[in-house]
Design a protein that fits this description.
- The chain is of the alpha+beta class.
- It is built from eleven helices and ten strands.
- It has one domain.
- 40% of the residues lie in helices and 15% in strands.
- Helix 2 runs antiparallel to helix 8 and helix 3 crosses helix 5.
- 39% of the residues are buried.
């Protein structure tokens, strides 16, 4: 799953775009460049000629820290980091270190900030896109609770629409154009070529796949300048994408989990979060869930002690 190319957008405030460029330029030892565009783009050209952009985003509530108090700030404090095309093994440490440096420079996030991860969609077919829809739909409630999506951001990352899921699964899907038609139902008064088409504001955004950069976008992440959490979100996106590509089929049936942590842990293990390498990623993703990650029905120490005492007595009698 780590061969998939991806890009990440991280929204934050606390410092200006100019300051963010200074931090990135010092880290990459690159060249800075400013473009007068509608997004007020500043960018750093790294030594490998890849471009890291810092752009304005109107959805960010701009703030800065003044004598330990958070105060409202001007629009120059609206910062969105837009990465170049990345791969996990080669670039994850670079992303994490840049995030650390931006936070150390004074960057922080608030409830208006989000993270968007774009995944290369060239390998997707009608089958895998339907799988992706069903995987997200079946895990809607678990993912939204695990990721603690802020109410202020729900309008930008809505849950998968039940009608769309039902119709995709009820139809005989032979090609991507059929899924595209279903995706845009209800948006007849909007041009599909519009970049800010309203269909894009879902946890799983397929508008960018059908009419954009041919990427599948996952939008369901609160922004953080925490290197470990950023890594966990990237691995989750890559794992979900890989599951959609490799499974023969996927069910949209919602998970009914009394032990949420255990359900999340087993799901993560199933999609690739295996071993010590991803232990911290797993912990970040089930931190806010109820239950016990290690025991499906909970761990009762008293019952365990009683079983141990009974076993001791049995062995003594033998």
């Amino acid at each position: 799953m780590f061969n998939t190319k991806f890009g990440i957008e991280i929204e934050f405030t606390g410092i200006t775009r100019t300051k963010a460029i200074e931090v990135a330029n010092k880290y990459f030892h690159g060249n800075t460049e400013t473009r007068n565009t509608r997004y007020s783009t500043n960018q750093v050209i790294a030594p490998d000629n890849r471009i890291w952009k810092f752009v304005y985003d109107a959805s960010i509530t701009c703030q800065r820290k003044n004598h330990r108090q958070y105060t409202f700030a001007g629009r120059e404090y609206s910062v969105e980091l837009v990465s170049p095309i990345l791969t996990y093994r080669e670039d994850i440490k670079t992303v994490q270190e840049l995030v650390r440096r931006l936070r150390k420079a004074g960057g922080f996030v608030n409830k208006s900030c989000g993270i968007h991860i774009h995944l290369n969609g060239n390998d997707h077919s009608a089958r895998s896109i339907r799988n992706f829809v069903n995987i997200i739909a079946s895990k809607n409630d678990l993912l939204y609770k695990a990721l603690q999506i802020e109410p202020e951001r729900m309008r930008y990352c809505k849950k998968m629409d039940d009608y769309l899921v039902e119709k995709i699964n009820r139809s005989v899907i032979r090609n991507l154009s059929q899924i595209e038609t279903i995706w845009y139902e209800g948006y007849q008064h909007e041009s599909r070529s519009s970049h800010y088409h309203n269909s894009r504001y879902h946890f799983l955004n397929l508008h960018s796949f059908f009419h954009g950069s041919r990427t599948v976008e996952l939008r369901g992440f609160n922004s953080v300048l925490h290197a470990g959490k950023v890594r966990a979100y990237i691995v989750l996106a890559l794992a979900l994408n890989n599951q959609a590509l490799t499974q023969t089929s996927a069910s949209s049936r919602k998970v009914q989990a009394e032990n949420e942590k255990f359900a999340m842990r087993t799901f993560l293990n199933r999609i690739g979060f295996i071993g010590d390498e991803f232990k911290s990623c797993r912990e970040h993703l089930y931190l806010h869930l109820n239950g016990n990650a290690a025991w499906r029905f909970g761990y009762d120490r008293r019952k365990d002690n009683q079983n141990y005492a009974n076993q001791e007595r049995s062995e003594a009698n033998d």
